[in-house]
Specification:
It contains eight helices and five strands. With 166 residues, it is α+β, with helices and mostly antiparallel strands. It has a three-stranded mixed β-sheet. It has a two-stranded antiparallel sheet with strand order 1-2. Strand 1 (5-10) and strand 2 (15-20) form a beta hairpin.
Length: 166
């Protein structure tokens, strides 16, 4: 795999300097043809100034959409990207999480094993949430990545009756 570089200019030297981005979300977005190295450079500069997430900046500038970002994040973290609202999910899997918890934590259970539960959520880097859910549910949490739109649609499809009565 070829390396992707962002060219940044050092004012004091007046020469370009190559900085490898191997393994970073920006590189994946470039490899997928979703942004240019120039887009990434400008977004990284804004990230330093604002402290916002890189993906949030790229979405705000209409360079990518949430699904583009989430698919690339899943790829970066070697996780599945799923559309839970379009899946057939067994009632016993859905029952592993109450409707209130699914709505509160914005996750959808998509698969279950003897000692684990796979949840689709939008922030696979939220280790606190994974640990909290693991403690509450007394199981190991495995993660898959999805979008906010898919969470909303899945909540409506799978938990609408429980959410309306609570």
């Amino acid at each position: 795999m070829g390396e992707i570089y962002v060219i940044s200019y050092l004012e004091e030297l007046g020469k370009p300097m190559k900085e490898p981005l191997t393994g970073f979300i920006g590189e994946i977005l470039i490899q997928q043809g979703l942004i240019t190295p120039e887009n990434l450079h400008l977004a990284l500069k804004q990230q330093q100034e604002t402290g916002k997430y890189l993906g949030q900046i790229l979405i705000e500038h209409d360079l990518i959409n949430e699904e583009d970002l989430q698919r690339c994040l899943a790829s970066q973290l070697n996780l599945d990207f799923l559309n839970p609202a379009e899946m057939e999910i067994a009632p016993e899997v859905l029952g592993a999480l109450t409707a209130k918890m699914a709505q509160q934590y914005r996750v959808i259970p998509v698969a279950k094993g003897a000692n684990w539960l796979k949840l689709a959520g939008t922030d696979p880097l939220d280790r606190d949430l994974q640990e909290r859910l693991g403690r509450e549910l007394k199981t190991v949490i495995r993660w898959a990545v999805t979008t906010n739109e898919q969470i909303d649609k899945a909540l409506e499809r799978f938990y609408h009756e429980q959410l309306r009565t609570s």
